[in-house]
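Readers outside the structure-tokenisation community will struggle with the description of the input data as it stands. Showing the layout once, in full, would remove most of the difficulty. For illustration, here is how one protein appears when written out as sequence plus structure tokens:
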Amino acid sequence: MSAVRIGPYTLPNGLILAPMAGVTDQPFRQLCKRLGAGLVVSEMVTSDMSLWNTRKSRMRMIHGGDPEPRSVQIAGGDAQMLADAARANVELGAQIIDINMGCPAKKVCNKAAGSALLKDEDLVSEILHAVVAAVDVPVTLKIRTGWDRSNKNGLTVAKIAEQAGITALAVHGRTRADLYTGEAEYDTIAAIKQAVSIPVFANGDIDSAEKARYVLQATGADGLLIGRAAQGRPWIFREIEHFLRTGDTLPAPELFEVEHILLEHLAALHAFYGDVMGVRIARKHVGWYLATLPGAREFRAQFNRLDETEAQCANVREFFAERYKNLVTGDGEGVAA
């Protein structure tokens, strides 16, 4: 895969960590960037700046130490508020503004934001023109293929985006009504790629190096957005990058490396959020990392009752020590999925 440009920025590769609320915080962004992602995007930030004073919103903002170029995703349904939010984020250090018109969550769509905006093409145009005019950094857009199967207007919205000055477009190959179920429709992404001249990134169900190559070939996309498949597998970026570059499959990480990455991730979460919140947020990540390993379910049940940083780290070390012992005695799988 050749390098991809977004405005003045040339990405080392076209593999992008998709923004996910509650997941793509600073510790996870830094980890994915180190493990091969060409670009990482912040969690979705509301365009309602009156809500920015909450601890939750502050944690979602750009922070010192974030990998560059720093991309922030904003969401909302009011053109002026989105323009103001974009400007404020740039002042805080954002180097790319990403607009969310792809999130299918009810609490987002009920506020006429996210993929709900796809219903109103005039409003889409108004929002995109307002945000592009408000900032002097590249503005990118994330959409779905349409509202539902009988209202697939992704192609029209893509053309509106290009005319409005959007620099790059990410397309999740499902409609709003599909949520995250069913097969992703790569043919629609291919049609959108053919119809516009700006970079197009394909998103949806990319969970392996082989699938990544298939989706690139099927869509002609310039790059890929990887979301849920990176949860507990941040090394998926280096696996895909290596496979696309060489045609060879990178071996799965050894058990000791998975332990090292997980403990590093835990330390970063605890440092970033503080003990109480860090311990709570660590639980879901640990569950994702260990999901495919034997004994993981029983381990999670006890791990989720722990409420101290040190206890969490010690518990993870014990879990891996048990796996190493089983490897030596031959009682179970030892390599991460």
In short: The two ends are 24 Å apart (CA to CA). The longest strand covers residues 39-46. The chain has two domains: 4-246, 255-328. DSSP finds 13 helices and ten strands in the chain.
